[in-house]
Design goal:
It contains 20 helices and 17 strands. The protein has helices at residues 16-21, 28-34, 36-50, 59-69, 100-111, 133-140, 151-163, 184-190, 206-212, 239-249, 276-281, 307-315, 317-321, 326-338, 342-348, 350-356, 359-377, 414-422, 447-453, 463-473, and strands at residues 82-83, 118-119, 124-125, 144-148, 167-171, 177-178, 182-183, 194-198, 217-223, 253-258, 286-290, 301-305, 381-390, 402-411, 428-429, 431-433, 436-440. The chain has a seven-stranded mixed beta sheet with strand order 4-12-11-10-9-5-8, with helices on both faces. The protein has a four-stranded antiparallel beta sheet with strand order 13-14-17-16. A two-stranded parallel sheet has the order 1-15. The longest helix has 19 residues, at 359-377. The chain is globular and about 85 Å long. The model is unreliable at 461-481 (pLDDT under 50). It binds pyridoxal-5'-phosphate. Pyridoxal-5'-phosphate binds next to α7 and β10.
């Protein structure tokens, strides 16, 4: 049986034995999991590695070899992990976990057609922003709102819509870089604006802004310096000071809040982080913030502010290029609905739940988990508990650290042990600090699953390959399918 090229109808020449080999019962399960083309491709690689016609006597060895080669395909590339790094909103680990309400809404939107841009009352066209704008206005006090792919996109869009080809004034103390790829000066340039820097790194005064305003000025921008703090001899200009100046000159003030939040974190004994409402009350004309940081929703960039400006922003062609899909809009709407009753947040929203956990609660959990860990570690390592300080992450509150408790492992070759934790069925990510491997338990939600897989640490052979290897060597020898 040889394959036929669809376009030309001609047979594709290849060693005929490969197709026959793919019919071996030993490979049937592998074919079921990854599909015939992948197995045939792997068999070819095997034949090539063997340099010649493969021998049927090698069947078992061949099946094992193929199983190992294809092992990576047995599980998705993006896998669930335990984030025990101590950083609650870890950008590399996907930031906020969604509330069940948001997950259900997203799944429902994935399954069915929806009224994404459809108005049921008159069968006319609706606006996708209509699903979230009323909630955002209600929660921030803004006149209007819109949403895009992420906050970097929101900043790019706001600048392009309101200031393309003209100047935007920013304090030197706020020319920040976030996570490498997002730098305010670069975004400014890509938005087609000319950056006018004022003040110095540590001190900027109102008069610095006033002196910089000229005929080409289109806006003043404030950026929440979310991932660092300047301490000591410092001065920055608050929104309350800046807004009257901008008003007098007829200029809009745009503020990138970064993480931003819709509720006062002090409710849960956490340090204050600026809320979108505070910025609106202070008179900021357009406020941007992320959906998947403190807000605890899906990735999104939210823009709230004055109606005429938000309308200009929403009409910009770039908005179309940065728009949100129905799945994330559904999740975002469900998340915002939870905020209608702040009492529910600490129970329903995983981000707030993790941030609000008390040290006592974490300590109690740590005491439950420690003996289970100690029991599997053996003599090479020593496990204990350690008071640690974690972070909110994703730029929020860079200096204030969250008191927590960590499982602390000491001993030789901690790298090796850390890597064994990463090879568990649900990889566990911690951090090594002062020759100690730390697992901060503030974010351990599924304690049962964590504990259940600990015994596998001892048999720390590479997990990725084992399932398929076993399958090809054992299951595949079962009855023909
Ligand atoms: C995180 C952050 C951004 C980028 O937001 P994304 O949603 O990741 O695109 C921009 N500005 C500030 C101040 C931030 O903290």
């Amino acid at each position: 049986m040889s394959r036929v090229d669809r376009a030309s109808g001609a047979s594709i020449p290849h060693p005929p034995s490969i197709d026959r080999m793919a019919n071996w019962p030993a490979l049937a399960l592998l074919i079921e999991r990854v599909g015939r083309p992948m197995v045939v491709e792997t068999l070819r690689a095997w034949a090539e590695a063997k340099r010649g016609a493969p021998d049927v006597a090698d069947l078992d060895a061949c099946a094992r070899w193929c199983g190992e080669r294809l092992a990576g395909l047995a599980q998705p590339s993006q896998r669930r992990v335990f984030n025990l790094t101590g950083t609650v909103l870890h950008t590399n680990l996907g930031r906020a976990l969604l509330a069940e309400e948001a997950i259900e809404a997203a799944v429902a939107a994935m399954r069915s057609p929806t009224t994404l841009e459809y108005d049921l009352s008159d069968a006319g066209r609706g606006e996708r922003d209509d699903h979230i704008a009323p909630w955002l206005c209600r929660l921030t006090g803004a006149e209007a709102a819109t949403a895009v792919n992420n906050n970097a996109g929101a900043v790019l869009l706001a600048l392009n819509a309101l200031a393309a080809g003209r100047e935007v004034i920013v304090s030197r103390g706020e020319l920040i870089e976030i996570g490498g790829a997002f730098r305010i000066p670069d975004i400014m340039a890509r938005a087609g604006c000319r950056l006018v820097e004022v003040g110095t790194t540590n001190r900027t005064h109102l008069r610095d802004y006033a002196n910089a305003i000229g005929p080409d000025t289109a806006a003043i921008m404030k950026v929440h310096p979310s991932n660092y703090a300047v301490q000591g001899f410092t001065k920055s200009v608050s929104a309350a000071e800046l807004v009257p100046l901008a008003r007098a000159k007829g200029l809009p003030v745009i503020e990138d809040l970064g993480s931003g939040t819709l509720v006062d974190l002090e409710t849960w004994g956490l340090p204050h982080e600026p809320t979108a409402r505070e910025a609106i009350v202070a008179g900021i004309d357009v406020v941007t913030f992320s959906g998947d940081k403190l807000l605890g929703g899906p990735q999104a960039g939210l823009l709230v502010g004055r109606r005429n400006l938000i309308e200009r922003i929403a009409k910009n062609p770039m908005k179309r290029a940065l728009r949100l899909d129905k799945v994330r809009l559904a999740a975002l709407e469900a998340t915002l609905r939870l905020y209608a009753d702040p009492e529910r947040l600490a129970r329903r929203l995983p981000t707030i739940r993790a941030l609000a956990r008390s040290e006592m609660e974490i300590q109690a959990q740590a005491e439950r988990v420690l003996p289970k860990l100690a029991a599997v570690l053996g003599a090479e390592w020593k496990a204990g508990l350690k008071p640690v300080r974690g972070q909110i992450g994703s730029g929020a509150l860079p200096v204030d650290l969250l008191p927590s408790v960590a499982l602390a492992v000491t001993g030789r070759s901690l790298d090796k042990l850390a890597s064994a934790f990463r090879r568990l069925p649900i990889p566990v990510i911690g951090r090594i600090e002062d020759d100690t491997l730390l697992f901060d338990l503030r974010t351990l939600d599924d304690e049962a699953a964590f504990v259940a897989q600990l015994p596998e640490l001892i048999s720390s052979r590479p997990r990725a390959s084992s399932s398929l290897m076993n399958m090809s060597a054992q299951d595949a020898r079962g009855p023909k399918t």
